[in-house]
Amino acid sequence: MTFKTGHVGLNVSDLDASTSFYVKVFGFDIVGESREEGRRFALLGLDGTLVLTLWEQSEGKFDTGNPGLHHLSFEVPDIEAVHRAEAAIRETGVTVFHDGVVPHGEGASSGGVFFEDPDGIRLEIYAATGADERPAPTPGAPTCGFF
């Protein structure tokens, strides 16, 4: 049996804010939605492929102390795309970790930008090469560990 990741579904506290954030940062299209009270959701995709679903079903902020999602990572073709994403992320005012683009670990060329969405869900946008401009922020541990 072969498995491939399909879409990812996230609970959010404010559908409008989260939809706006993900469209701005990732360039997603809204491929479906419901604005019906009590059943609000947005289906986000790229090039006709569903990537992310947002469900307005929660309150408060993401709690990293509970079992579940650690972080959500997206690969882009090159480090220039990471830098473009970083600029869009900074415009939103959310938390950016490590003060920008960093490698995944000491000596690694792969890396990216690590940040939170409006609900505090930890995210990463990375490229396979070109992130070795700065030292890794956490010696002996992967940057995507958010240590």
TrEMBL record:
Domain of life according to the entry: Bacteria
Pfam family of this protein, just one? Glyoxalase
**UniProt xrefs under SUPFAM superfamilies:** Glyoxalase/Bleomycin resistance protein/Dihydroxybiphenyl dioxygenase
- Which segments constitute the VOC domain? 4-128
- InterPro entries documented for this protein: Fosfomycin_Res_Enzymes (IPR051332), Glyas_Bleomycin-R_OHBP_Dase (IPR029068), Glyas_Fos-R_dOase_dom (IPR004360), Glyoxalase_1_CS (IPR018146), VOC_core (IPR037523)
Keywords of the record, alphabetical order, are:
Metal-binding
User: Protein name, please?
Assistant: VOC family protein
